Known about the structure:
heterodimer, A: alpha/beta, Rossmann fold, 5-stranded mixed β-sheet, 32% helix, globular, B: Rossmann fold, 6-stranded mixed β-sheet, 4-stranded mixed β-sheet, 17 helices, 10 strands, 49% helix, elongated
Amino acid sequence: MHSASVKHFFRIFATDFMPFISNILQHKSLSIVGLEKNTGKTVCLNYILHRLNELGVQVGVTSIGVDGEQVDSVFATAKPEITLFRDTYFITSEKHYLMRQALSNIVAVDSQRTSLGPLVTAKVLIPGKVLLSGAATTSILRRQIQTFDSMGIGLSIVDGALSRLSLASPTVTEAMILATGAAVSANVKQLIAKTRHLYQFIMLDEVEEPLRTILGDIESGLWAIDSDQQVHDLGITSVFLIDRSEQNILRFGHTLFAAGAISDRLLKILAAKGKDITLIARDFTKIFVTPEVYTEYTRRGNRLMVLQRSKLIAITLNPTSPQGFLLDSKSTCDALSDALQTPVYDVVQIRSEGE
Amino acid sequence: MKIKELIKNDAGFQYIIDNMDLQSAAGRRGMLNAEFVNNPTALEEEWDRVAEAIRATNDIPNRRYYIDLRHCLMCLHDLSGTFASLANHTPLNEVELFEIKNLCYMSKAASTAIEGLSLTPTLSLPDCSEIFALLDPDHTGIANFYIYDSYDSRLAPLRRELNALQTSGGDPMRISELLAQQSDIQNEVCLRLSDQLHPWVDTLVKTLEQMSYGDFLLAKAKLAIDWQLVRPTLGDVTRYKNLFNPRLKQRNEEMHLRYQPVSIEIRPGVCLITGANMAGKTVLLKSIGTAQMMAQCGMYVPAEEATVRLLDGVATSIGDDQDEMNGLSSYASEIIKISNILSDCRERELLVLIDEPARTTNPVEGKALVQAIIKILEGRPSFTLITTHYGQLGSSCRRLRVKGFVEDMDNIPLTPQSINRFIDYSLTEDQSDNVPHEALRIAAILNCDPEMIALASAQIQ
């Protein structure tokens, strides 16, 4: 009772002074997505776990695909592992489970195997570091979050990956944090431009029900939605196979849905075909479009929408790059925040201030 | 022959197997390895078990036990790799030990559900409580696992220190040291537990097998209920009342089309099936083959009533097997297949199903080949059905004719879409050596080129 009330007091006290963390606590699931490698995603995750532990909030942690290699494979810099606190639930593959430092109690093993063995769910008994490797598909990720929720765990955190190779999407979570930093560009203007480019896709409007559910079940191809909300297969199995000779792409109307990736090629063809086109993507992670092509596409009155989006609650900045560049933390945070109208935090800095 | 081999050559049976509602990959593996059985006692016993499983599935007051049992089966993992390690004295890791503990836990929960459903004599699982106890030194009774402190007296003090250091952010060197010590002790414990579990490997294998079998059994029962299958009785001849093809029946229902089941008796020797094109001869052969496999794999069959004569196997030549990759034409691959069937059924009692033999070669030699095939098969111990469009074969064998077109069945206009409403798919015993000549009429109904039809008619006259 006593300890609970202290925790409660601390929670109120802490949340008043930490808008970042209090914002997270308003959601049941959160993903942390890095704009590129070395943008401080893991530092950010560790910071959040640390703060939530202080607040006595129980969390469940999972990840997308294989991540958390001890050494970053691109730049060979030491990659921080994730430190998990007592009573935290986590999911990782058998291989990485057996490599963990934390002492933990296995509560479930999944029947589906990954290349690193089956996925293991466990509860931490003694704090320590853990390598995360997790869901290969969005449906597995969604199920994991539901499982955490049904176990009474208040917050599920997904260590997200942003990769063309990843089938699982972090947008199944309610909230999202985007990690950016000097690794994206050492030039502040370019850093802002690149972050803003992704930001605008994160902020795209969601389509409404029932279309959302109908389209959600479609796994591949390019589809048209007519004015009666009827869905028609355009018979194009991959948007990469589409070409300019495709005459009838708008035969059912100006609303299209691409179940897979959206490329420059597709947007260019659509921009040449007409105006007032609405192209629906599964989520922002499926959009691989350069700023020039996107500008040209929207200039003609066309737009993009998504089936699913997470609420972006903050952007974090890692001012150092693996090549050794260092940005001025304060001015870069301010500039990003002004440009994107979203709170921006230097996680390394607030962590050291907090300790 | 195993189910996994049978489904390779029979799309109809493959469809049945694909529709089995199994809860686990282990259950599916067990099903695919189940045998085609030709032992009347074994089959009667298996059908008894299916009957019991149907009763349990329909036991509404005890529904919760059924749901529990299905849940336990859903949690079943394929641990054959782990058991192989255990048998070879390869030490198991924590995750594998958890899996074994979980299996024992699920087997106990499943046993409770099986008792609740009064299925005990039908499905019984080995007692795994001693194995569970080995993996549950603290008597928690739940399926969680780690290397508990109680496995080794050194663990508790070591972990107390480690916990204090990790919580307060203590000396990293000391932490590494403690982690290394802990890891060594944990490995010792894993090794010891693996040795202690070694004698239980047969019990574990049996538990997994029985649970997999339970999964298959419940799926058989569910299929029988959902598709209204019937328990066959054994007899000297095979007899179906209203045999149906589940795949076609479902497709027709989805498209709001009529589906007509067919009754047939299959006697020893050769029987020719004749009838117009589109009269369902090929479908009939396929349905009969699939039903025989279902029966002899211990399943119920798709008919209103069924008596089945047990046989050594099913041999079929149905459909166009043209295989350009083998360099064989459709005629070549067919005639090789038939030739193989003829030698296969020299010693064995087979259900032989041949669809329009020699239809892709010239009618003079084709007819002669059919006559030869009939003659040879009449001397074999098989039960043979052959469909054909050849008449005047000069054989005295039994003939069944599909009734075929019934005009003016009602007042619906005859179109390619409505054509199946004008066909009576039932069979009638036929004494004549003739076959129906309706190819041109069907072509006309199908709106084919009128000039072609007119010229062909003129040619015949």
